């Protein structure tokens, strides 16, 4: 063994290094053949033709004041002004937990984190924030995130479990803070959900939708493969029923039909009804995605687990689900991104989410005809967070793909 | 069969075991007694039911007629009986079946921690001892996908041994391996046989059988055609089918 190793090192050469100057790279990749050069010119032409008017319009002609004046509405809807500090509190907590996670898990500083912090800071400095409490809050967000990062770095791996627990506590806590729990005189009076709106409502619908539809989807996927016929039939019936109906129909059913079946004196909150509709809808799709992952697990994995005496539940939780879920991360996250965008459908049943608010502000008399600005802003926000979710999914795949070689 | 074997209590008792796949009669009345510390080699042409048979012993396959008693417990539909037997019977598969999302150490520690409820330190210590025993302690923190086939199979053996089983079943443990890796796995199995483990091995490795087997069983068409000590089977097989099969696998 050693002799062979010594002998072979003599012939071992490093791989050839390809190095180009910028111009060399441009030549090799963009102008290496006449048709490639033609395509390059064509592409540049198209980008210029579209990009130039878009940029001149957004910088010179667009009247962004429709967005700036209505920023509070777009962000939190009709949430009482005196209570907005609670939303800020949620964000500060998010910055703290997010900063901690950053410090604990991510090696290096990562360009996007720096850019993100700089963007928040830039927003705080911009003239639109003059005299607004938002400036202080935005700066505080950066400071808290950095403090969390420092703490996470110092704590390192020992803090992992704590941070996971903080995330678990975070979401119920946010719901509690947003909703409130005392009477009107108390410190955190209840804010009825018909005042929730804008991005706040969109986020709440998304987060609650993801947190509840995922475990429900797992149960349905396992149920559909259960050897017990009743459980299997119920799962199949549920999945196929829900998948055969558009989300809008389910939302309408939840808003209009549900009260008909309930006792007259019992009312279910409208936001809650929409949440339930979204959860039930997404769970059916997630169940099928997860079932796809379950089917990809070779039978030998079950046999090996059973042969060593693991119970059925242990086999599922320790061996099958971890592998199945890892295999379908891209589809799972894809479904969650779809859920995030689909929350805009609640505007149809009268809830004022981000899109609903945008629709209502462009009908304000002083902003007639400014749909483009409002909808472009909304589009940018949807894209930003969708892309963030997609990015997290990629990171997750890399982090979990360790043994897969 | 020698006298002192008859005096001993059999650890596995099979009487008239039958198994069907649909209409196909895969096991047609198999009876066998295995005694403690015995090494049994089962061989035969493919489709002869030899794998099916050893898989009925820990109920990865269900037998439909006859009785199987393992370590004093009869295999029945009672789930607790099955789990009790499975924790006393280790199994090694042709395709290794390691868990790809867990490291070598985690693969070995899994069952001791979750089934035997040992604390982590104890499980870890035993896992490390077993890795030393199968000769790959340096691979402890790698994932199965990073190991060669022979190393994976040795991890699979260590994983089965971690439960400190009374019986080990091997289902064609070297059939999926490249030729140069077969020896490293067989060496581990020979060492295990010499340590006194009760083993049932489905294999065509006749060198292994000659070295350590106490008895050999030749399976064909779901039945035991012939059984006996290795020297009898190799020197003067009684049945024509055994002769033919041995001539086919020993000819080159």
Give a structural overview:
The complex is a heterodimer of chains A (405) and B (252). Chain A is mostly helical and 405 residues long. Chain A folds into two domains: 81-191, no CATH class; 197-405, MetI-like (MetI-like fold, Orthogonal Bundle). In chain A, 73% of the residues lie in helices and 0% in strands. Chain A is globular and about 75 Å long. The model of chain A is unreliable at 1-5 (pLDDT under 50). By secondary structure, chain B is an alpha/beta fold. Chain B starts with a helix and ends with a helix. In chain B, the strands form two sheets. Chain B has a six-stranded mixed sheet with strand order 6-7-8-3-9-10, with helices on both faces. The model of chain B has no long low-confidence stretch (mean pLDDT 93). In chain B, strand 1 (10-21) and strand 2 form a beta hairpin. The longest helix of chain B is centred in the C-terminal third of the chain and has 16 residues, at 179-194. The relative contact order of chain B is 0.16. Chain B contains ten helices and ten strands. The A-B interface holds A 298, 300-301, 303-311, 314, 318-319, 322-323, 326, 402-405 and B 58, 60, 83-84, 86-87, 89-91, 93, 95, 97-103, 110-111, 114-115, 143-146, 159-160, 163.
Could you name the key traits of this structure?
A: about 400 residues; mainly alpha; 2 domains; 18 helices; about 75% helix; about 0% strand; globular; disordered N terminus; B: about 250 residues; 10 helices; about 25% strand
* Assembly context of the chains: heterodimer
- How many strands in all of chain B? 10
Secondary structure class of chain A reads mainly alpha
Helicity level of chain A, as a percent range? Answer: over 70%
Count the domains of chain A.
2
Q: Given this structure, which CATH class of the largest domain in chain A is correct? A: Mainly Alpha
Mean pLDDT of chain A: 88
Largest interface: A-B, 22 and 29 residues
CATH architecture of the largest domain in chain A: Orthogonal Bundle
Number of strands of chain A: 0
Rg of chain B over CA atoms, rounded to whole Å, is 18 Å
The end-to-end span of chain A amounts to 25 Å
Query: Which descriptor suits the 3D outline of chain A?
Result: globular
């Amino acid at each position: 063994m050693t002799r062979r190793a010594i002998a072979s090192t003599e012939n071992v050469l490093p791989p050839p290094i390809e190095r180009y100057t910028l111009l060399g790279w441009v030549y090799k990749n963009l102008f290496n053949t006449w048709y490639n050069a033609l395509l390059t010119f064509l592409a540049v032409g198209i980008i210029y033709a579209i990009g130039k008017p878009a940029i001149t319009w957004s910088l010179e002609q667009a009247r962004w004041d429709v967005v700036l004046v209505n920023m509070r509405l777009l962000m939190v809807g009709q949430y009482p002004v005196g209570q907005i500090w609670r939303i800020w509190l949620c964000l500060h907590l998010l910055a703290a937990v997010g900063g901690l996670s950053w410090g604990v898990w991510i090696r290096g500083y990562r360009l996007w984190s720096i850019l993100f912090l700089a963007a928040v800071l830039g927003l705080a400095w911009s003239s639109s924030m003059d005299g607004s409490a938002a400036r202080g809050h935005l700066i505080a967000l950066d400071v808290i995130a950095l403090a969390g990062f420092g703490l996470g770095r110092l704590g390192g791996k020992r803090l992992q479990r704590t941070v996971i627990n903080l995330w678990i506590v975070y979401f119920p806590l946010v719901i509690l803070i947003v909703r409130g729990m005392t009477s009107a005189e108390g410190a955190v009076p209840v804010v009825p959900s018909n005042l929730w709106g804008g991005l706040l409502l969109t986020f709440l619908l998304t987060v609650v939708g993801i947190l509840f539809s995922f475990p429900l989807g797992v149960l349905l996927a396992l149920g559909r493969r259960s050897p017990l016929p009743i459980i299997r039939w119920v799962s199949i019936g549920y999945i196929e029923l829900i998948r055969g109906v558009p989300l809008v129909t389910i939302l309408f059913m939840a808003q209009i039909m549900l009260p008909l079946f309930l006792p007259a004196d019992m009312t279910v909150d409208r936001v809650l009804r929409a949440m339930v509709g979204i959860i039930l809808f997404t769970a059916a799709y997630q169940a099928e995605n997860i079932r796809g992952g379950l089917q990809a697990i070779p039978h030998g994995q079950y046999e090996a687990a059973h042969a060593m005496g693991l119970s059925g539940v242990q086999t599922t939780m320790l061996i099958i689900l971890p592998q199945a879920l890892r295999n379908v991360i891209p589809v799972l996250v894809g479904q969650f991104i779809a859920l995030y965008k689909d929350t805009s459908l609640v505007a149809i049943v009268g809830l004022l989410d981000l899109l609903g608010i945008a629709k209502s502000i462009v009908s304000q008399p002083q902003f007639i005809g400014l749909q483009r600005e409002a909808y472009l802003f909304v589009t940018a926000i949807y894209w930003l967070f969708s892309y963030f979710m997609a990015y997290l999914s990629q990171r997750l795949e890399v982090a979990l793909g360790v043994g897969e070689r | 069969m020698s006298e002192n074997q008859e005096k001993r209590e059999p650890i596995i008792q099979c009487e008239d075991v039958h198994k069907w796949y649909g209409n196909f009669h895969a096991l047609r009345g198999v009876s066998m007694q295995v005694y403690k510390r015995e090494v049994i080699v089962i061989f035969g042409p493919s489709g002869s039911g030899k794998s099916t048979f050893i898989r009925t012993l820990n109920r990865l396959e269900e037998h439909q007629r006859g009785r199987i008693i393992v370590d004093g417990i009869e295999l029945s539909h009672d789930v607790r009986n099955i789990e009790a037997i499975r924790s006393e019977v280790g199994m090694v598969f042709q395709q290794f079946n390691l868990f790809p999302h867990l490291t070598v150490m985690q693969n070995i520690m899994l069952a001791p921690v979750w089934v035997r409820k040992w604390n982590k330190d104890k499980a870890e210590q035993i896992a490390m001892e077993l890795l030393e025993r199968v000769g790959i302690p340096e691979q402890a923190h790698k994932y199965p996908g990073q190991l060669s086939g022979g190393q994976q199979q040795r991890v699979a053996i260590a994983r089965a041994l971690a439960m400190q089983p009374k019986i080990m079943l091997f289902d064609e443990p070297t059939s999926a391996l490249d030729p140069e890796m077969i020896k490293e796995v067989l060496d581990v199995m020979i060492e295990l046989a010499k340590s006194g483990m009760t083993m049932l091995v489905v294999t065509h490795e006749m060198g292994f059988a000659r070295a350590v087997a106490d008895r050999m069983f030749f399976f064909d068409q779901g039945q035991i055609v012939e059984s006996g000590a290795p020297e009898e089977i190799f020197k003067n097989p009684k049945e024509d089918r055994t002769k033919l099969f041995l001539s086919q696998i020993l000819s080159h």
